[in-house]
Design a protein that fits this description.
With about 130 residues, this protein is mainly β. Helices cover about 0% and strands about 50% of the residues. The strands form 2 sheets. Strands 2, 4, 5, 6, 9, 10 and 11 form a 7-stranded mixed sheet that branches. It has a 4-stranded antiparallel sheet with strand order 1-3-8-7, with no helix packed on it. The radius of gyration is 13 Å and the shape is globular. It starts with a strand and ends with a strand.
Length: about 130
């Protein structure tokens, strides 16, 4: 079992930067590929970014590519999402997730992730 707790959300202005963190406890998350998703009001939860267990591979949604960066510090059991040049359309609840399948492929589907945090709200004003 893995527990995930996100932090770092809040209100920012368009163009600003923000870093989210996701602290993992329980079974060490260093075994797992990790992902970030987001859900805007009235919309489906969508993939944002993923990183392999060792940090060597990443994947990003086209909407955030070049602006967001996922990283991890396995010694601290923490995954990060650095968000730059933020836009109002980035407004959403952001969720951290762990893929416990131990597979090599980075997953973009919500159903592929086994553990989820409670989410942190990010609001970007124009």
């Amino acid at each position: 079992q893995v527990q995930l707790v996100e932090a770092g959300g809040g209100l920012v202005q368009a163009g600003d930067s923000r870093r989210l963190s996701c602290a993992a406890s329980g079974r060490t998350h260093s075994f797992y590929n990790m992902g970030w998703f987001r859900q805007a009001p009235g919309k489906e939860r969508e993939f944002v970014a993923a990183m392999s267990k060792t940090g060597g591979r990443t994947s990003y949604a086209d909407s955030v590519k070049g602006r967001f960066t996922i990283s991890r510090d396995n010694a601290k059991n923490t995954v990060y999402l650095q968000m730059n040049s933020m836009k109002p359309e980035d407004t959403a609840v952001y969720y951290c997730a762990a893929d416990a399948s131990l597979g090599l492929m980075l997953q973009t589907a919500r159903a592929a992730y086994d553990y989820w945090g409670q989410g942190t709200q990010v609001t970007v004003s124009s």
